[in-house]
Amino acid sequence: MADFDIAVAGAGAVGMSCALWAQMRGHKVLLLDPEPPGSGTSYGNACTLATYACLPVNDPSVLTSLPSLMFSKDSPLSLSYAHALRNPRWMLSFLANCRAAPSRRIAGHLANLLSHADAGINPLIEAAGAQDLVVERGQLSVWSTVKAAEAATAGLERRRVLGVPWREVGPDEAQEMEPGLQLPVKRAVHFHAARSLRDPLELITRMHRAFSRLGGTTLTSAVEAVKASGSGVELQAEGQRVTAGHAVIASGAFSKRIKGAGADKLPLGTERGYHVMYQSEAHRVTRPVGWGEAGFYAVPHAQGLRLTGTVEIAALAAPMNTRRLDYIARKGTEMLGELPAPSSEWLGYRPTMPDSLPVIGRGPQSERVLYAFGHQHIGLTLGGITGRLIADLAEGRQPNIDLAPYAAGRRFA
Q1: 117-127 vs 379-394: helix crossing angle, rounded to 10
Q2: Distance between CA atoms of 270 and 281, rounded to whole angstroms?
Q3: For residues 130 and 397, what is the distance between their CA atoms, to the nearest angstrom?
Q4: Contact 20, 260 (CB under 8 A)
């Protein structure tokens, strides 16, 4: 007899969602993480349930604008050349997926998954008693140059074709919606169906309380290794041994460090993201506002104003890049006017496959090992539906979504 029906390695937005869904289904669930739930990469996100975010980072514009993205001091992208040279296959696969046909295909798969996102997370919000954390004011995207505004057209039309609702907003209306904007707004779009959270960490904390209240068990240890057999999985966690019917690998960018899980054989990379917080400045915006050219969001958070985003391709263990923080702070003043000194700064590790699609499904070595990682920028948004799909797989149910596009064995370039 196994100690648990399901053991989940990782207590971020995705892992916590997997654990809570399984516990709500009546399973005996163990959640393992060396840190408090939601305190890792899930802590520092843009607070947005971004159901509109079907356009992958892999976009044809990356190929045409690669030199300026790599070398301009105003670029939202930073690349460690040493890291790129050490990981040429990941980089080449990422760039191959930036071609028009693969990019369109990826967008379609993301849109399909995102269309189920609310159905996945809403039951968790209800179970956590966290309805008060949800804000329904949509998300506003703005562009400050004519060139960028025109370049956004193809992506916006692609979203419309894929079923994402949005409406064009004139510059005057954009200023009325967000009076704090200091940018010359040349174009604005309101994703009115999107929602945001006052505090994502508080949501995950409440989800964990619900998990515990329903009988879930938490072990404050890192899963170091798993060993699957025909009857279950043995997990080694900092000197402790536990057994489960199924093991869920949901440790984000750290998933490939778990020996025996098979994730180390996958091209799992890291898009490092940053944020700066300004206490008592949350009034600067009333909803998440994305600045297209700068590649970041201004977000009203329960603890203040959060400026978050950009992409840094670098090693997981590389030190914090203060130039990324300086970039966000500088662009923040261009966007919103003078700001005080930041009250805190943060670095997180977005787990990213070279095709920008998550890995959801059974591991290639054993059907007892389930994968739930690689959600890049939208782990908070997709955590709920991922948790529901993982619960289906653990129960032997046929999920209502075709998981082939997200399988570990798919072709990545």
Answers
A1: 90
A2: 30
A3: 29
A4: no
Amino acid at 46: A
Residue 347: burial class (beta carbons within 10 Å; 0-12, 13-18, 19+): middle
**Token pair recorded at residue 63:** 């190929």
Contacts of residue 180, Cβ cutoff 8 Å, sequence gap at least 6: 283, 284, 285, 336, 337
Closest CA to 31 of 202, 203, 235: 235
Please, what is the Cα angle at 311 between 255 and 376, to 5 degrees?
A: 35
Q: Which two tokens stand for residue 111?
A: 């849109």
Instruction: Encode pLDDT of 353-384 as tens digits.
Output: 999 999 999 999 899 999 999 999 999 999 99
In this prediction the pTM is 0.96
SS3 19: helix
Q: Which two tokens stand for residue 105?
A: 């295909």
What is the Cα gyration radius of the chain? 21
Sign of CA dihedral 399, 400, 402, 403: negative
Query: For residue 93, what are its two tokens?
Result: 């696969």
Pairing mode, strands 359-362 and 304-313: unpaired
- Cα–Cα–Cα angle for 302, 306, 308, rounded to 5 degrees: 140
Task: Select from 352, 271, 256 the least CA-distant residue to 308.
Answer: 271
Q: How far is Cα 37 from Cα 194, in angstroms, rounded to an integer?
A: 24
pLDDT of residue 76: 87
